[in-house]
Amino acid sequence: MYIPHPEPWLADETLGEHLERRGIDRRDFVKFCGQMTVMLGLGQSMIPKVAEALQQVKRPSVIWISLMECTGCTESVLRSADPSIGDLVLDLVSLDFQENLQAAAGHEAEAALQAAMKENYGKYILIVTGSASLAEDGICCTIGGRTANEVLRETAAGAAAVIAVGACAHWGNIQASKPNLVGAVGVSEIVKDKPVVNIAGCPPIADTVTATVVHWLTFGRLPDTDSDGRPLFAYGARIHDMCSKRANFDAGQFAESFDDEGARKGWCLYKVGCKGPATFSPCPIFLWNERTSWPIGAGHPCIGCTERQFWDNMTPFYARMPNVPGFGVESTADTIGLALAAGAVAGVAAHAAATGVHRIREQRRARELPVVDRPPEGPRHG
Ligand code: SF4
Ligand code: SF4
Ligand code: F3S
């Protein structure tokens, strides 16, 4: 867990000056800028511009509020396995209020929030984890005697931009699943007059939050988003189109159960419930756990956690998903392997799917993003 660095920022100090004073290795800094630039899909030629912008920036104040949630997103974002990079990430911002990390509690915490807002009113970035509640006048979640709804409205009023982290802040998550007795809603249902970006997932990958902050610091605005407010640099492509098991899908090689020969060989998990064909997420590219693996790579189907209402729309999690309109995934899964084996025409859906994979890979290569070209993961053990 992050421990605030003992050397405070000096007044008017830039990030570059601060890092230099702290003795941060220049190579670590440039490496970090390179990773962020690639994640943002900007191309390697932009690394010097990002590095220069970050060096000259003054740390923005960040206020991080926690509403109806489980704290998993905070764990995901702040628990870095790489201490030097973790410190560097948190050096980017002045984390002026975060309930899980600060010593203050109760009235002291409430006073700290008011002070942080007052000091940087109109300028701070608001990070929100958790959902608000509209049922019963919002009393299903109260903090310091006020509803989550009120806390969100008040803190958003003084923010320059809002980053909604996780499925709870994005659309309400399991609290908002049918029948949604508490009237749970995401940030964008409450905050209408500020730029809001949704870092989707339960929880999301930490790098996605960091890259969003880097985009803000470099360009002075939030990244472009899809129609659901998710940043396109991370959520612009389907898992299925970047999946390391896609070759197995196209070849008709499926695990039929979690302990069969197909599962041991690391084949496609579509028939045991994978929702990758309907899920937009950077998991196959950014990866988890120091970029070592991800759910499908570990042998578990994607449950679609970056999509709205996934508890209602993607369940049962271990049943194969129904046909996806416009894609024909169901018929493809049933027939493509046999069709290919027989040397027959595989069908329009298969062709379109393969073409889509090729096109996305070429696009990513053109943007100098990492392309997952690894062979399918090996056998699962245990
Ligand atoms: Fe927890 Fe998931 Fe909500 Fe994050 S999105 S706070 S991990 S329930
Ligand atoms: Fe990968 Fe799932 Fe698509 Fe299979 S169905 S290729 S496991 S995303
Ligand atoms: Fe979520 Fe699917 Fe990634 S379940 S963590 S989007 S593989």
Short description:
The chain has 382 residues and is of the alpha/beta class.
What does this structure look like?
With 382 residues, the protein is α/β, with parallel strands linked by helices. It folds into two domains: 15-235, Rossmann fold; 239-366, Cytochrome-c3 Hydrogenase, Chain A, domain 2 (Irregular). It contains 16 helices and nine strands. It has helices spanning 15-22, 26-39, 47-56, 72-78, 83-91, 106-119, 148-157, 166-171, 206-219, 232-235, 246-250, 261-264, 283-286, 310-313, 329-341, 348-366; strands at 61-66, 94-98, 124-129, 132-133, 142-143, 146-147, 159-165, 184-185, 196-199. The strands form three sheets. It has a five-stranded parallel beta sheet with strand order 2-1-3-7-9, sandwiched between helices. The chain has a two-stranded antiparallel ribbon with strand order 4-8. It has a two-stranded antiparallel sheet with strand order 5-6. A hairpin with a 2-residue loop joins β5 and β6. The longest helix has 19 residues, at 348-366. The radius of gyration is 22 Å and the shape is globular. The structure holds iron/sulfur cluster (2 copies) and FE3-S4 cluster.
